[in-house]
Amino acid sequence: MKDSAEFAIRARGLTRRFGSLVAVNEVDLDIPTGRIYGFLGPNGSGKSTTIRMLCGLLRPSAGRATVLGLDAARDSEALKNRIGYMTQSFSLYQDLSVGENLQFIGEIYAIPRRERRRRVGELLSRYNLAGREGQRAGALSGGQRQRLALAAAVMHRPQLLLLDEPTSAVDPSNRRDFWEGLFELAERGTTILVSTHYMDEAIRCHNLAILDRGVKVADGSPRALGESIGTHVVEVRADNADAAHLALGKIPRIVSLTRLGSRLRAQIPKRIAEPLAIVGEALRNAGIEAEINTVFPDLEDIFVAVTELREHGRDGRESGGTPIRDSVIPRGAAESRAETAPARSRDYARDDGKGEHEGHMEGSER
Ligand SMILES: Nc1ncnc2c1ncn2[C@@H]1O[C@H](COP(=O)(O)OP(=O)(O)OP(=O)(O)O)[C@@H](O)[C@H]1O
Ligand SMILES: [Mg+2]
């Protein structure tokens, strides 16, 4: 595989089995240099396993990955000095202080003493940890820990950073700051691969791959992904959202229905030319007043289209007949889901007309 300057990571057929489980299934990746690339997927979709193979920490069962021009499995020692890896759980020494942790990481990378001291000072200040050098790492808040972990990961100025759910225990304001830091790094030329459950983080990535049960089901920029899905998205604002939900749930051509507080989002296969007419008629017949608009798919819509609907052949590629997949976003997350709702908080349920619901998302780990 060539083009190591253009692509920081290239993978072909990357596969990892654990016994009979295929955790990562023939994944191809082309991750451009100097960009932020996201892995979006529910629990157990293979994000961490893929990242560990790309770091050279886990051997692929099949396929290969070239990372910064090196074979990730064969040249893992050489690779270590050129990449920074932030594990999913905090992996620094809880009993050492902030300063001691950074000094220690600097020693591991054999940074000479004087330069090490300078570098640690610089990182403490950049990641807003100045004044906390003496504090035990185990006593830091979730956000402070993540900043310390990021400071440790960039100690040796790696060209590539692999961040495995770096913000899972971080509040929205700290997550925003953390992402500002990532953008700064990318602007200075660092390539960043970051896994996340959060839609609002995934949408910030230049490009992303959506993983589902070990398979890469889609990739591209958020814009391109939105353009490529096989469904129209119609947003419905009704005073009586419950009644609208009930009425639209009976329409077979609506292949997915997502409730967001007082709003609903309905997906209708692209081959149907007039999606608004279908929704409008269903609401009129039920005597429901509502404002309806076709909208550009957001990541949540894309996620449903490339996972659930594709799996059941209801994404517009063939005619359906299977029951509607009805997605309910928990009320707390509903109105501002793009800012706060992690993908795993989606509560997928199937409405087969008998009022029977089936929890789903966490079950993707099968
Ligand atoms: N060392 C292992 N031995 C056996 N099975 C494993 C091992 N590591 C991962 N798995 C399995 O592989 C699948 C993918 O796991 P992975 O940790 O890569 O998912 P993930 O997308 O990172 O999930 P999460 O969002 O929960 O972190 C899961 O079913 C998991 O149980
Ligand atoms: Mg993981």
Number of domains: 2
Separation, N- and C-terminal Cα atoms: 33 Å
The CATH architecture of the largest domain comes to 3-Layer(aba) Sandwich
CATH hierarchy class name of the largest domain: Alpha Beta
CATH superfamily of the largest domain: P-loop containing nucleotide triphosphate hydrolases
**Strands of the largest sheet, in order across it?**
6-7-8-3-9-10
> Which hetero compounds are present in the coordinates?
adenosine-5'-triphosphate, magnesium ion
Tertiary shape? elongated
Summarize the structure.
This protein is 32% helix and 27% strand.
Structure explained in plain terms:
By secondary structure, the chain is α/β, with parallel strands linked by helices. The chain folds into 2 domains: 7-224, Rossmann fold (3-Layer(aba) Sandwich); 227-364, 2-Layer Sandwich (Alpha-Beta Plaits). Helix content is 32%, strand content 27%. The protein has helices spanning 47-54, 76-80, 98-108, 113-126, 142-154, 172-187, 199-202, 222-228, 241-248, 275-285, 299-311, 331-334, 337-340, and strands spanning 7-18, 21-32, 36-40, 62-67, 70-71, 83-86, 160-164, 191-196, 207-212, 215-220, 231-238, 256-260, 263-269, 290-295, 325-328, 347-350. Strands 6-7-8-3-9-10 form a 6-stranded mixed β-sheet, sandwiched between helices. A 6-stranded mixed β-sheet has the order 14-11-13-12-15-16, with helices on both faces. Helix 3 (98-108) crosses helix 4 (113-126). The longest helix has 16 residues, at 172-187. The chain is elongated. The two termini are 33 Å apart. The relative contact order is 0.12. Residues 317-366 have low confidence and may be disordered. The structure holds adenosine-5'-triphosphate and magnesium ion (MG). Residues 18, 21, 23, 41, 43-49, 88, 365 line the site of adenosine-5'-triphosphate.
